[in-house]
Write a structure and sequence with these properties.
mainly alpha, transmembrane
């Protein structure tokens, strides 16, 4: 395996890691937003449902 091939593999792995980190960050942001909205409007939603 040449140095260029190793470099390409490392670059691809770094890109996949970056995409995974961005995806996890997005899911975390969505989860935090949902929790905040439920804390703020949970009583209103519960009274509508019940």
């Amino acid at each position: 395996m040449s140095v260029n091939q190793r470099s390409d593999i490392i670059d691809e792995e770094q890109e996949l890691s970056r995409m995974a980190a961005i995806s996890l960050g997005a899911w975390l942001a969505i989860t935090v937003a949902a929790v905040i909205l439920l804390l703020l409007f949970g009583d209103v939603l519960a009274s509508l449902i019940l």
